[in-house]
Specification:
285 residues, alpha/beta, D-Maltodextrin-Binding Protein, domain 2, 3-stranded parallel β-sheet, 11 helices
């Protein structure tokens, strides 16, 4: 019985150790690049008039073209919705870890300890923490002070929340959750239900624009970001060749400048998108 058990153990270990098909090989064989993109993260991924749009769509179309040249065959870009909810099958990290997508493109803050089974690419964008508020609140709002007694909206389970709770201990953090959290927080800030909403500058502008707000209808403070945040794509940690391929695409294209150019083409040089991006690049790059 002991010998049989040992033999079974060896078989199980051997079966578990067999490598999964490498991603580049899979893409070449199937002709499909599967990319996770969120629908609640303008300008990276959002829905406009029923159409899925965003910077990640544009970037992944360029990446698909590179893969077509590499493999000398047509490649279909398949966009699959990802979310912040890791309890669901379409959680952004879970989707990558489980092989539902080959990578996830979005505002993923690079950290030194990504979730197990995943890894971040090199940075493709930089931004930082800002406060969004009504213009009339700006006069009284002092981001270099303590913000004592002010209601500051934050998204749950984010680095921004941790920063606000650490830096502004006398403020009152108001939590927002779920895919609609950012949308609701900005609405509350514009109604005056909360004093301000703290988040990544590029995402604040993106959601404000998506809600139809003009730059004169809201204010961002301070003039430069309070923190520096780098975004990376989420990749499976087991496939080093795929990681190198994605990082090479980012490096070759100078992705930060490409994203800035796309933004400029879409919204013009006078857009708040450009202002917060340049401010972040000046401070953080």
């Amino acid at each position: 019985m002991t010998a049989i058990a040992a033999s079974l153990g060896i078989l199980l270990i051997t079966a578990g150790a067999s490598p999964a098909q490498e991603i580049l090989e899979e893409i070449q064989n199937t002709g499909t690049l599967k990319v996770g993109i969120r629908k609640d993260a303008a300008p990276f991924g959002y829905v406009e008039s029923g159409e899925w749009e965003g910077l990640c769509i544009e970037m992944m179309e360029s990446f698909t073209e590179e893969l077509e040249q590499q493999f000398n065959r047509s490649i279909e870009l398949q966009t699959i919705e990802s979310t912040l909810n890791e309890a669901s099958s379409n959680g952004r990290y879970r989707s990558v870890r489980d092989g539902r997508v080959h990578l996830e493109c979005g505002p993923n803050t690079i950290s030194t300890t990504p979730p197990q089974g995943t890894e971040f690419s090199t940075k493709f964008f930089v931004t930082g923490t800002y406060f969004l508020m009504r213009p009339q609140t700006r006069i009284l709002f002092k981001p270099l002070g303590f913000l004592e007694g002010l209601d500051i909206g934050v998204l749950d389970d984010t680095l921004t929340r941790k920063f606000i709770e650490s830096r502004y201990q006398l403020a009152d953090p108001i939590s927002y959750t779920g895919n609609q959290g950012r949308q609701q927080a900005i609405r509350d800030a514009m109604r005056g239900t909360i004093d301000a909403f703290a988040s990544d500058g590029i995402l604040l502008v993106g959601e404000a624009e998506r809600q139809g707000l003009t730059s004169s209808q809201y204010s961002l403070l301070p003039n430069e970001p309070l923190t520096c945040i780098s975004y990376g794509m989420i990749l499976p940690s087991h496939d080093q060749q795929w990681i190198e391929t994605v990082n090479l695409f980012i490096a070759k294209g100078d992705a930060i400048n490409i994203v800035t150019r796309i933004l400029t083409d879409l919204v013009g040089v006078e857009s708040p998108y450009i202002d917060v991006t340049i401010a972040a690049m000046d401070k953080c790059s």
